[in-house]
C-alpha cells in the first residue's frame, strides 16, 4: 500500500535526506554506559540490519529511535524531528515509526483484527470503517485471512508475529523497527515472518532490523551495521561485510555464527 | 519464559485470551451435596437433642405431647421468616459494601501507580492502613467517626447505623481491592506497555484500554474470595447494634426463653444460611481460578 506523505513532517526534511539520522548517541543505565557514541544514517526505502553479540546495545539503540528509551546524549532525527527533545511530540514520532518486538506483545484480550484496528481508531481517531477496511487488507497481506477473529492465544508464534507486523503497519508508519522478531520462533515459522518482512522491504518500506538471521540479512539488507560493546565497529553493504570484514571483532563474531 | 514463547503451538498461558466461552454455570448439585446437607441437618438436630434436659418420665404419651416444649425444629420454622429477613439484610450490607469498596479501591489502586509521587504515597499509606487494621476496629471507626446525619447543601441526609456499617465494611474492601489491583497491574508483562506506547497510546489510554481489561480476569477470583469473607464478616455489625441476622438470632433465642437446647439449632441455622450462600461462591471462585490459571 502507498504511504501517504505525512503532513506533519518537519519542514526542514526532504526525502533525499536520511529518514533516520543517529548522531553520537550515548545511553547509560545508572552508571552503566550501554551506547558509547553511535552514529548511523538510514535513507528512505533502505533496509538496514544491525547485528552483534548479545548485550551490545542493539535493542537499546532501536528503542531510542522511537523514544521508548530516552537518550542520555546525542541526537536522533526522524524525518528531521529531534527525538532527544524534552518537548518531543511523541504521537507525531510514533505514527512515523512502527515497532515490532521479539515477544509479539499482542493485546491478549483483543482479536487479531481488533489488535490491528485499535491504535488507528483510539489513538489517531480515524474513521472506524476506513480503518477496518485497511486492517483486513493488512491481515490478508500477512497471509492471515480467516484468522481475523482469533485471539492471540489461539495463534501460533509466527501468526502472532505477523499480526503484530500488521498492527504496526496499520498506523501507516514511514519507518519500521524490528527487534529480533524471529528469535522466539520455531525454525519453520521463522520463514513465514521473514517472507513478510522481505516483501515490506521490497515495497520500499524503510526497515531497521536487529537480527541473528545472517542469510536473511545478506539477502535483504542494503547495509549492515555491526555493534559490539556499545559502539558500531563497522558497517558496509552485505556482500562486503560478510566476505571482507575488516575488523577482528567482526571476523570473530562471524566466525562463531556462520 | 523463553521456553513458553519458543513453542508457537502452545502460546504462553499468561497471554491466553478469554477463549471461546466455555460456560461457567452455577456449581452443579450432586448427591454429595445432598448428603452433606442431610448430615448437617442431623448434626444440628442431634446437638439440640443432646442439650435437651432429661425429660421427666411422662405419665402418659398423651400428656407428654401436650406439655412438651416446642421442638428446636419448630422454633426455627416459626422464626425463619424473621431470621431470613435478617440474613437478607446481611446480604444487602455485603453487596453494598463490596460495591462501594470496589469503586473506591480501584481509585486508590490507580492512585498507587500514579505518576504523581504524592498521590502515590498517600494511596499507598491509606491502602496499608486499612488493610492492616482489624475489620471490627474499622467498623467501630466508621460507627463513631461518621455523624448520624450530613447536611449537604441544605439537604439533611441521615446516616443510619446500617449505612455506617456499610462504610465500615467498605474500608477494608477498598484497601484489599486497591492492593489486588496494584498486584494485577504489576503482573501485566512490560511488553504490553511498550507495545502500547510504541503505538502512540498515552499512559492513561494504556491503563484503561489495555492494562485494566486484562486485570479484570486476574482479579476476579480473589475479588470473589474477598466478597465471601466480607459477607461472613457482616455479622460483626451485630456488635454495633445493627439488626442483622446474628442480632435477630440472639433476640429469638431470648424470646424463646433462652432455653440452652435452642442455642445450637438457632446459631446452627444462622451458620448454615451463610454456608449455603458462600459455598457456591467459593466453588465458582475455584473454577474461575482453574480456568484462568496463569501458571505456564
Ligand atoms: N532498562 C534497562 N536498565 C538497565 N540496564 C539495561 C536496560 N536495558 C538494557 N540494559 C542493559 O544494556 C545492555 C544492552 O542491552 P540490549 O538489550 O540493548 O542488548 P542487545 O544487544 O539487544 O542484546 P540481545 O541480543 O541479548 O537482545 C545489557 O547489558 C542490558 O543489561
Ligand atoms: Mg535485544
UniProtKB/TrEMBL annotation, chain A:
Keywords per UniProt? Amino-acid transport, ATP-binding, Cell membrane, Membrane, Nucleotide-binding, Transport
| Stated name of the protein | Amino acid ABC transporter ATP-binding protein
GO CC terms: plasma membrane
PANTHER family per record: AMINO ACID IMPORT ATP-BINDING PROTEIN, GLUTAMATE_ASPARTATE IMPORT ATP-BINDING PROTEIN GLTL
Chief localisation class: membrane
Family as reported in the entry's similarity comment: Belongs to the ABC transporter superfamily.
Cite the InterPro entries for this sequence.
Answer: AAA+_ATPase, ABC_ATPase_HisP-typ, ABC_transporter-like_ATP-bd, ABC_transporter-like_CS, MetN_ABC_transporter-like, P-loop_NTPase
Report domain ABC transporter positions.
20-254
What lineage does the source organism belong to?
Bacteria, Pseudomonadati, Pseudomonadota, Alphaproteobacteria, Hyphomicrobiales
Q: Where in the cell is it found?
A: Cell membrane
Single GO molecular-function term? ABC-type amino acid transporter activity
Q: What is the membrane topology noted in the UniProt record heading this document?
A: Peripheral membrane protein
Keyword Cell membrane present in the record's keywords: the answer is: yes
Specify whether ATP-binding is a keyword of the entry: yes
